[in-house]
Amino acid sequence: MIDHHLRVHPSAETPPRTEQLAWKLAEISRSAAEVGADVAAMAVNRVIDNAAVAVASLRRRPVAVARSQALPHTAAPGAPGAPGASVFGADPLARVSPEWAAWANGTAVRELDFHDTFLAADYSHPGDNIPPLLAVAQHAGRTGADLLRGVVVAYEVHVALVKAVCLHRHRIDHVAHLSAATACGIGALLGLPVEVTYQAVQQAVHTTTATRQSRKGEISSWKAFAPAFAGKAAVEAVDRAMRGEGAPSPIYEGEDGFVAWMLDGPGASYTVRLPEPGEPPRAILETYTKEHSAEYQAQAVIDLARSLREKIDPSKVESVVLHTSHHTHNVIGSGSGDPQKYDPTASRETLDHSVAYIMAVALQDGAWHHERSYAPERAARPDTVRLWHAISTVEDPEWTRRYHDPDPAAKAFGGRAVVTLTDGTVVEEELAVADAHPRGARPFGRDGYVGKFRTLAEGVVAPADQDRFLAAAEGLAGLSASGLAGLFPAVDHRALAEADAVLPKGLF
């Protein structure tokens, strides 16, 4: 790896393009390094993971809205391999413009907050790169091998940015890093010149920098739309750059640019670790998925609650204090200052960012379900509300240090629960990482991803069609251009179309 030093420059001292961060990121897309077998296998896992959470969300309103917005933007009807891209839940022969497929499919993947994650200086869901990359690969007639390279490059860029540059401190939404990574992934799968990808990265970052209010207070459906919007914007940025259009430049180093005015200011300095020329991409192996449909910091808490349930009676709990990291306390814990996180009428999006609610339900049920655990009647149960309101969080400096530990083998995303029972008994237990984490009690391997897909696809995708999808996904590197259509599990699109028809009409 090599260290790229990023700082703000006055306009009179603008560094050459080849020394700018956007150019260095674009160069990764042109790397000829071989993709290792373990990296390729993990990319397959994430394609399976994305499809699992997408098919489970097809009947949810934001996904139906995004799908209904996309379908009027037809590219060309016809056989597999025709121009345009497929949409989860639509007629298999339907093809829409790739930016709209990125929008619909990105929303389907993100809606349940149930796919992969990477946490470092900032936060991310690198799997959000896959929908726009798949859409462009289909539209451009590229192969599974091309898509595979695009995916691992996007992960490489995304992880590098998330490790180096914190957006959350300035309340900037994490999709600004996503759009840059997606632009680089598209550049890799299409084999674009560095100059073109460089301009696309800058356009994408410029147009997708937004505040984190989408994840604060009363969280709305925009949380699912935000990464889909970033993917759509990246596709459009690449299209403009391919046509010779430029971008605000330098987007990172400029005196009126991203770092100077959105992040740490004119005196800012960051070190971004990037692969050397020819170094194989491996960052995807540092990322991890979710076993439970909830914000990532809640993963270990759910597993911790399930373990505690074997030792205590939830009805006898007087209080629970979760000693945890700064992020968990301030983003999904009582340190957020959001009363909505303790509101039984809160939206699903808000509840999945309330660690107190999640811990209460997991303590009572000993399980977590992507639908039942969030049902309004579940949240309103009096015994749940009582337990929920008895749970609080505090920041523990040691858990914060462990959260930010640069060594992946030492990072921790959990906490220590101190449970006081009504008879005065105190029970303490801690868990550093979720059971499904690579260092957890039951790390997810291919069987875990396949099992997650089959569970979420039950009742949505017929068993034979599940088998067909899994065969296509596991053969990703050898898929032809027309074979990419196999990455969309067959569902009853007619039933979904009937459901979509009752949605209020918009412009399209």
TrEMBL record:
This is 2-methylcitrate dehydratase. Transmembrane segments: none annotated. The keyword Cell membrane does not apply. Residues 19-269 form the MmgE/PrpD N-terminal domain. Residues 292-474 form the MmgE/PrpD C-terminal domain. Keywords: Lyase. Belongs to the PrpD family. It is an enzyme of class 4 (lyase). Its EC number is 4.2.1.79. One of its GO terms (molecular function) is 2-methylcitrate dehydratase activity. It comes from Streptosporangium saharense. The keyword Lyase applies.
